[in-house]
UniProtKB/TrEMBL annotation:
InterPro entries (alphabetical): ConA-like_dom_sf (IPR013320), Peptidase_G1 (IPR000250), Peptidase_G1_sf (IPR038656)
Name of this chain's protein: Glutamic protease
Annotated keywords: Hydrolase, Protease, Signal
SUPFAM superfamilies: Concanavalin A-like lectins/glucanases
GO biological process: proteolysis
Native organism: Lentinula detonsa
Signal sequence region: 1-19
């Protein structure tokens, strides 16, 4: 994989990448503790049964909404996941969320996640965005060279070269500008299993607690597909995940072929 000039500087400044962007408020200083978590099941969901009496088969989570492929075809692994979305404009009260795609981290593979995406913050009515990748359980690394604004159309791709090496790619669809990084698992316990693939809006964690989910309107992933090396699955082969907090929906999701739509509830 060729590193573009665009991202070579990131590779060189890797170890300091998380130390940036604590300038403008305590909220953002807390980003140093920011972490994405695996799918956490809502205690409201005893099974996939509906919270609201509807006939949905959705999964319920306290921290994820979006689309989830729960397992690959027997004997295969997800090795390549992609999706495109438009960065939302946040409104209202202070809060933060993350829009990302990844391999593993679903109920069948909670020990690790290889993921990349955009963190979206609103603080005092102002939107801030940060590109990042994370190989959970390690905290996220910020990709400061990829400067993001609301309404930018971004394509994300996560590939597993093998279980402990991956490639993440972010592309600006307006310019075609694209950068890739080769990343490695923090340790062997974080080796990918390739058992889940997902397109997620996450209520992320800072200082060990979920930050308030901001009013994001809608996030739609298009071209949401995952490849095992043998077959390509659209998101529609999987399940929609709704975010439930304090007994109520905060984000609901639908999937149609390769389009995953997440609505702020
Ligand atoms: C994408 O390109 C547009 C047009 O040049 C630019 O305004 C925007 O900031 C870029 N976004 C990213 C994430 O590179
Ligand atoms: C995974 O791929 C990387 C990059 O090609 C290589 O350096 C590494 O040795 C491989 N690891 C395993 C366990 O095969
Ligand atoms: C969901 O969980 C919350 C918090 O435990 C509880 O107050 C609420 O009644 C639950 N709602 C349902 C529908 O089970």
């Amino acid at each position: 994989m060729k590193l573009t000039a665009f991202f070579i500087s990131i590779a060189l400044t890797f170890s300091v990448a998380t130390a940036s962007s604590s300038d403008f408020s305590a909220h953002l200083a807390a980003r140093e503790s920011r972490i994405s978590r695996p799918f956490t099941k809502s205690t409201n969901a005893t099974d996939n049964g509906p919270l609201d009496g509807s006939t949905t088969e959705d999964l319920y989570s306290t921290n994820w909404a979006g689309g989830l492929l729960e397992s690959p075809p027997v004997g295969q692994r997800f090795i390549d996941v992609g999706g495109t979305f438009v960065v939302p404009t946040l409104r209202g009260n202070d809060g933060a969320m993350s829009v990302w795609i990844g391999i593993d981290g679903g109920p069948n593979a909670p020990q690790s996640i290889l993921q990349t995406g955009i963190d979206c913050y609103i603080i005092g009515g102002v939107n801030y965005f940060f590109a990042w990748f994370e190989w959970y359980p390690q905290n996220a690394f910020e990709i400061t060279e990829f400067v993001v604004s609301a309404q930018n159309k971004i394509t994300l791709r996560v590939q597993a070269v093998n279980s402990t090496t991956g490639i993440i790619t972010l592309t600006n669809e307006s310019t075609g500008q694209s950068g890739s990084l080769e990343v490695t698992a923090p340790d062997d316990d974080a080796a990918l299993q390739g058992q889940t693939a997902e397109w997620i809006v996450e209520d992320l964690e800072q200082d060990g607690t979920l930050v308030p989910l901001p009013s994001f309107g809608q996030v739609q992933f298009t071209d949401a597909a995952a490849f095992t090396g043998v077959v390509e699955d659209f998101a529609s082969v999987g399940v929609a995940v709704d975010m439930v907090q304090n007994g109520g929906f905060v984000a609901t999701s639908t999937i149609n072929e390769n389009i995953v739509t997440v609505d702020y509830a």
